[in-house]
Amino acid sequence: MDLKYGVNPHQRFVRAEPIDPATRPVEVLNGRTSFINWLDALNAWQLVREARAATGLPAAASFKHVSPSGAAVATPLTEAQAQAYEVAGRELTPAALAYVRARGADPKCSFGDFAAISERVDVETARFLKGVVSDGIVAPGYEPEALEILKSKKKGAFIVMQADPAFDAPAEETREIFGMRFTQDRNAHQVSEADFKEVVCGELTPEAKRDLLLGLVAIKYTQSNSVGYALDGQMIGIGAGQQSRVDCTRLAGAKADLWYLRTHPKVLGLAFRDGVKKQERINWRVRYIEGDLTASETEALRDALAGTLDPLTDDERREWLAGLDGVSLVSDAFIPFRDNIDHAQKHGVRFLAEHGGSARRDEIEAACREYGITLVRTELRLFHH
Length: 385
Description:
CATH superfamily of the largest domain: AICAR transformylase, duplication domain
Strand order of the largest sheet: 1-6-5-4-2-3
Structural class: alpha/beta
Strand content: 15-25%
Mean pLDDT: 95
């Protein structure tokens, strides 16, 4: 099929076709796709299908530029989380719950995402999707009413794809770059508890196992180098595509902190005027937490609020973040230096899954023991490019 355009609009010629004309991994039900839409959809679908298999729970992902902004499984929301995600009082189905969590991890980065859900999309999920800025969705099926709701989104331009859950990709994959063709075995390794090769220190709780499994699957489909923080069945911070692993750890940790601060009473207490759109409210809460508002932003935020603006102080941030605990950290390769552990423990990390192949693995273990972090060695590398 001919697509809208390639990676960039000036790359006018682009075509997509199945390797085997008799089988298709995904079918387009609505909308006109671009090259990036396909990259997001195919990666996101693999993520949620594998997360579903690994955890036994409905899974969802929110993809942007070939990496997940968020990924999650269907676990109950706290009252504060429901309020932060703006779904308080709504009865969420498992499919909707998984996507609400996935998008709620980093809603600023999920703006204009490509959604993926492991389950048949129901009406509640479609209604939530219709109310957010998103480019498309891939799922194994749709209830008839849900499909019509999605087809009407973006004046009919919303992309709807249906994946074949039974599709099995070829054993080898090929890429062409600047006159060279590369063929390799596809990364067909299925993440499971069998990857927890060695629990070096500490103990794994059932919740930690779930979060580490989700994290390893999510990182498998994230541009490398990558590190991810998981809690409550969702990724709460993903650091993707950094050349230095500690930069991944810092970036993802900052996202995890911001996620947790979104449930601070002062953040939830921001009262916006009628007419302020949902994405504007989300963006203002993020900027309020970040705290480095310019003079013009401060004035604009005051105009958006029905009440007074009471800044969140550094002491209030520190006090609230002290409650972030039980976080699981995953890495797509070995942790090379203990500075990653020193930084991760600042963000409530209590469980870690990493390859374990560093020449300084003893230093990594010593740091984990020092901070009371359960260390799991996987002997598994999950680079993704």
